[in-house]
Specification:
This protein is mostly helical and about 240 residues long. The chain is about 70% helix and about 0% strand.
């Protein structure tokens, strides 16, 4: 009898590793479906919803590409992200851009320079502080600190900004550009050039981007409205920028 059993094992077809893996997957799928079948009226849809939610959460939770900004949010372990509409995010982005352009142009013109009679140590300290604030993530945190003051509000707004930027960057090119500045893929010189071109475009087409998105937040304008540069306007912008 033992010999017959051994012979039957030898003659039985061997199952490939891939087939075994598929069998295990199918067995697990049936088991999960059975569990949800007892607890939910539409198990396949519920399973799809949960899997999609977990995948999205896993993707959104990866903030490693923004190391400096995340390190500056001191209460991040106790904060809960709030999903915001595109108009809310873009209004904040445009406000940050406006403030940064004012900061950079003032620095270029020397308006923020220390008094000429200040001692060397004070001037060195001011220069070091200025270089630190030139880092875009630091500037963003400073921007909200000046606006809100309270650390919990500053951290919550920074966290919401980061969460929604990361969530929407692959769907909207303007958010993707901002995300690149946040992760410091582009440096401060790239940012200054971008803001200069942005300022020239605003003047040429007569549109304030910050006000445009503020109107979208209030429902006065569609967030999906697209702005176009005419051929003549594009040539004018190019002449101003590269003259």
């Amino acid at each position: 009898e033992d010999e017959e059993s051994a012979a039957s094992k030898e003659t039985a077809p061997k199952t490939s590793p891939a087939a075994t893996r598929m069998q295990r997957i199918e067995s697990a799928r049936k088991k999960i479906a059975g569990v949800y079948g007892r607890r939910a009226s539409r198990p396949p849809l519920e399973m799809a919803r949960m899997v999609g939610a977990m995948q999205q959460a896993e993707a959104l939770a990866d903030y490693s590409v923004y190391p400096r900004l995340t390190s500056l949010i001191s209460l991040r372990g106790r904060l809960e992200e709030k999903k915001r509409p595109l108009s809310w995010l873009m209004r904040l982005i445009e406000e940050i851009y406006d403030a940064r352009y004012v900061h950079d142009t003032a620095e270029t013109r020397g308006e923020d320079a220390e008094d000429a009679n200040a001692d060397a140590s004070a001037m060195a300290g001011a220069a070091a502080k200025e270089r630190f604030s030139n880092m875009f993530p630091v500037f963003v945190v400073d921007f909200f600190s000046k606006r809100y003051g309270l650390r919990t509000l500053v951290d919550q707004t920074c966290w919401d900004l980061l969460y929604n930027t990361h969530a929407l960057r692959k769907e909207h090119v303007e958010v993707e550009i901002f995300a690149r500045f946040l992760e410091e893929f582009y440096d401060s010189d790239d940012l200054l050039f971008f803001l200069f071109v942005r300022n020239v475009v605003q003047k040429e087409i007569g549109v304030n981007f910050r006000n445009r998105w503020a109107d979208a937040v209030r429902g006065r304008r569609s967030a999906r409205e697209v702005l176009w540069l005419s051929h003549r306007a594009a040539l004018t912008v190019a002449r101003v920028v590269f003259a």
